[in-house]
Design brief:
Shape: globular
Distance between the termini: 27 Å
Structural class: alpha/beta
Order of helices and strands: EEEHHEEEEHEHHHHEHHEEHHEHEEE
CATH architecture of one domain: 3-Layer(aba) Sandwich
Radius of gyration: 21 Å
CATH superfamily of one domain: P-loop containing nucleotide triphosphate hydrolases
Number of strands: 15
Strand order of the largest sheet: 2-1-4-5-6-7
Oligomer: single chain
CATH class of one domain: Alpha Beta
Strand content: 15-25%
Number of helices: 12
Helix content: 40-55%
């Protein structure tokens, strides 16, 4: 896939309305705070119909009520145009001029964003890892995206009953529906993690040269395979908390290296390699899904990476049809060079000569 153009209005600090991107390694340089990361955030939003991080309100420029992003992405079936309108608490997506959801966009277009904040996949709380997992599976399966939305609605309703009326006669019905949807969410997560683990392990070994196996496992917060039985067994805890105590909403990803928990015992370098391995595994899974590589977005390519990890990442960008790579300085090889200054994006060099 190739990101051909990005158009925006009032997206964070970006000023330039339209940017066109060539094939190959597209370097975007600028000082910290200039807008490089915002450019990638807009590209990611357009390519996926969903944010990589943050809230909708955070994406709208100060002094504006709404923002707009549109991308044109070339893929093996043609060219898709994705438009996203944003306002506080509201997002409208259109795919080739038709109303759409992010799941509709993911049938044709996808992008992977590699960023220094990926360290939160290791050092952050379970919600960061669940978010990574849900976003990835939603790009692979439209059904999963719908299931997660439905599970969230059921969980909210059931928690309200537990909090306000725990002996309500309708609670068993809400529980049965939650168990049915939650069990399917759990099964799809388990299947995805089984595909993800060998890919991430291979990347970790390639980056680090470490023969100790890197493993990714779905960590549930209940025993056994039957979610319904687990919820029934947690009845006392639910009454005490006024909330559903077990289920997919409390899942985690267990990351181990040689059998040891990377979060608890890994070095900073091992944790960074683990995070990079998860992102590259995502990239490879989406390549399998679409039959071609997704758009690759790399923010601040040299930040918090040692020479070996940086070399691996740059090799990946050089061997993909297109990668947009930001930094305070350009990577050693690039096919086009842009500079961002206070939100203004300017093409400095279209052929990759030194700036």
């Amino acid at each position: 896939m190739r990101l051909r153009s990005l158009t925006q209005l009032a997206f964070r600090n970006l000023v330039t309305r339209r940017v066109e991107f060539p094939d190959g390694v597209v370097a975007v340089v600028g000082q910290n705070g200039s807008g490089k990361s915002n450019l990638l955030a807009a590209a990611y939003l357009g390519c996926n119909g969903a944010l990589a991080a943050g809230t909708l309100a955070d994406m709208v420029a100060f002094g504006h009520d709404e923002a707009y992003v549109a991308v044109e992405v070339e893929h093996q079936d043609g060219v898709s145009r994705v438009e996203v309108g944003l306002a506080a608490g509201r997002k409208v997506v259109r795919l080739d001029s038709q109303p759409a959801r992010a799941a509709d966009v993911s049938r044709f277009v996808a992008a992977v964003l590699v960023t220094p904040e990926d360290s939160e996949l290791v050092h952050g709380g379970p919600s960061a890892r669940r978010g990574y997992l849900d976003a990835l599976i939603s790009k692979v399966s439209a059904r999963y995206a719908a299931l997660v939305r439905e599970y969230g609605r059921l969980l909210e309703q059931r928690n309200a009953l537990l909090r306000l009326s725990p002996h309500d006669a309708s609670l068993p019905d809400w529980t049965a529906r939650l168990v049915a949807v939650g069990s399917e969410v759990d099964a799809m997560r388990e299947r995805l993690v089984r595909r993800l683990c060998p890919l991430a392990a291979e990347v970790y070994r390639d980056v680090s040269g470490d023969e100790a196996p890197f493993e990714v496992r779905l960590a549930r917060n209940w025993d056994g395979e039957d979610l319904g039985a687990a919820i029934a067994a947690a009845r006392a805890a639910e009454l005490a908390r006024g909330a559903t105590a077990v289920g997919p909403h409390r899942d985690d990803l267990e990351l181990t290296l040689g059998g040891r928990d990377v979060r608890a015992f890994g070095s900073r370098g091992e944790a960074r390699t683990a995070a990079l391995s998860l992102r590259v595994a995502e990239y490879r899974l989406l390549t399998e899904r679409h039959g071609e590589p997704p758009v690759l977005l790399v923010d601040d390519f040299s930040a918090e990476l040692d020479a070996d990890r940086r070399a691996y990442l740059l090799s990946l960008t050089a061997n993909t049809p297109q990668a947009v790579v930001t930094g305070t300085e350009p990577p050693p090889h690039h096919d086009a060079l842009y500079r961002v200054t206070d939100g203004e994006v300017a093409l400095i060099d279209p052929v990759g000569a030194p700036a």
